[in-house]
Amino acid sequence: MDNRLYDVIHRRRDVRAQFTGAPIPDEVLHRVLSAAHAAPSVGLSQPWDFVVVRDAAIRETFHEHVHREREVFAATLDASAARRFARIKIDGVLESTLSIVVTYDRDRGGPAVLGRHAIADAGLYSVCLAIQNLWLAATAEDLGVGWVSFYREPFLAGLLGIPAGIRPVAWLCLGPVTHLETTPDLERHGWRHRRPLGDVVHHDRW
Ligand SMILES: Cc1cc2nc3c(=O)[nH]c(=O)nc-3n(C[C@H](O)[C@H](O)[C@H](O)COP(=O)(O)O)c2cc1C
Q1: What is the side-by-side strand order in the sheet with 98-105?
Q2: Which of 197, 144, 202, 161 is nearest to 16 (CA)?
Q3: Does 51 fall in a domain?
Q4: Can you give the pTM of this predicted structure?
Q5: Which of 3, 15, 103, 113 has the most Cβ atoms closer than 10 angstroms to its Cβ?
Q6: Looking at residue 128, which CATH number applies to its domain?
């Protein structure tokens, strides 16, 4: 048993506030992307692409959009939840070193994707596995990752020139951090608490 993998899994955090903005060496970025690209995928379709975003103007534009969407979400909350949400930072788009946008191409490996005929979402699951590989590899490299989902897909597709039919799945902020918190931000801010394992494991039937 290799305890280092478990250590990385449990050390991984979603990061918003701890990015330093320090550079990421090219070989480190290459290792992290290679780990993402080594993920399993339905029918070996490898339906992901990675857009590395360094451009400050693109990040500014995206950041403004994220903050408009933050207001859209905030308007759906009752007064007590809105107060708690107001204290929570939801992105590190401007403070992180760079971002990686991960996309899903439904047509990759088609038309007969082995294993997807009955479950169309299996392609999307594959992209999420690439994202998790990226997240764990970045943690092993002492980098932080922050997944930002406060955006409308057509807006992000237009901003990055993503071709029609390809879906943006995640905007990931990436970079060196001062430290990784030991408790998720949402737990630290009293938004939600993690469930114990015993509550989610079932035996033989749900
Ligand atoms: C699909 C997905 C979307 C997420 N979107 C956001 C987001 O927009 N902003 C944010 O601050 N965190 C986002 N997160 C991070 C979660 O809030 C975080 O994973 C969760 O609170 C548990 O914390 P941990 O990742 O540090 O264990 C997202 C995570 C996932 C998996």
Answers
A1: 48-53, 98-105, 166-176, 143-148
A2: 144
A3: yes
A4: 0.98
A5: 15
A6: 3.40.109.10
With 90 as the cut, is the pLDDT of residue 2 above it?
no
Rounded to whole angstroms, the Cα distance separating 57 from 144 reads 22
The verdict on residue 203 lying in a domain is no
Domain assignment present for 134: yes
The total of structural domains in the chain comes to 1
The pLDDT assigned to 125 comes to: 98
Q: Is the Cβ atom of 186 under 6 angstroms away from ligand 1?
A: yes
- Assess whether the C-beta atom of 148 lies below 6 angstroms from ligand 1: yes
> Does residue 29 line the site of ligand 1, with CB under 6 A?
no
69-122, pLDDT tens digit by residue?
999 999 999 999 999 999 999 999 999 999 999 999 999 999 999 999 999 999
The whole domain housing 97 covers 11-180
- Contact present, 28 and 142 (Cβ < 8 Å): no
CA distances to 137, 147, 172 from 12, rounded to whole Å, are: 10, 12, 14
